[in-house]
Amino acid sequence: MGCFKRSESALLLGFLVLIFSESVLGRFVVEKNSLRVTSPDSIKGTHDSAIGNFGIPQYGGSMAGTVVFPKENRKGCKNFDDFGISFKSKPGALPFFVLVDRGDCFFALKVWNAQNAGAAAVLVADDVEEALITMDSPEEDSASAKYIANITIPSATDREKFR
């Protein structure tokens, strides 16, 4: 009999929790930006891109530059100086936006390495067939803390094939 009362009480408690609890819905928002490609004609157009969740986002602004895809260190996971690569633009020239492939390291590290090489912005080519994702920073540890807070250039990821 005591076992029956205990299960009856548990059932009643569970029912009351269901009745009086509020349903909770969560939503994750990917902050999008438009990327307009003006040339070459094969990829010309406006594309959705997701902005990085680190660094300084350029809300409401616009930038113009020349996109470069490095011949080496294509994922941007290593220091570009190790390859003798610089993205510093000459005075009066358009700034360089570095295109890197997704994978092998954190998005923030890719941006940090390109920034240190002189890039004005970074575009990460996402070859994974999925909805746009936010480029997030890793959990801060001693290694990532050195660069996450010091990223000052904008970055975005895009699903388009730019090569």
Automatic annotation (TrEMBL):
<protein>
    <submittedName>
        <fullName>Vacuolar-sorting receptor 4</fullName>
    </submittedName>
</protein>
<keyword id="KW-0325">Glycoprotein</keyword>
<dbReference type="InterPro" id="IPR003137">
    <property type="entry name" value="PA_domain"/>
</dbReference>
<feature type="domain" description="PA">
    <location>
        <begin position="65"/>
        <end position="156"/>
    </location>
</feature>
<keyword id="KW-0732">Signal</keyword>
<feature type="signal peptide">
    <location>
        <begin position="1"/>
        <end position="26"/>
    </location>
</feature>
<dbReference type="InterPro" id="IPR046450">
    <property type="entry name" value="PA_dom_sf"/>
</dbReference>
<keyword id="KW-0675">Receptor</keyword>
<dbReference type="Pfam" id="PF02225">
    <property type="entry name" value="PA"/>
</dbReference>
